[in-house]
Amino acid sequence: MMADEIRPTLDVPGIDLGDYCAALVARFANPSLHHRTAQIAMDGSQKLPQRIIAPLRARAGKGLASPLLTLSLAGWIAYMMQRGDTIADPQAALLQTAAQGQSPAQATARVLGLTQIFGPMDDFLRDLIPQTAPMSPASSKAAPPPRSNTL
Question: What b/e string do you get for 5-38 counting C-beta neighbours within 10 Å, with b at 16 or more?
Answer without folding.
Answer: bbbebeeeeeeeeeeebeeeeeeeeeeeeeeeee
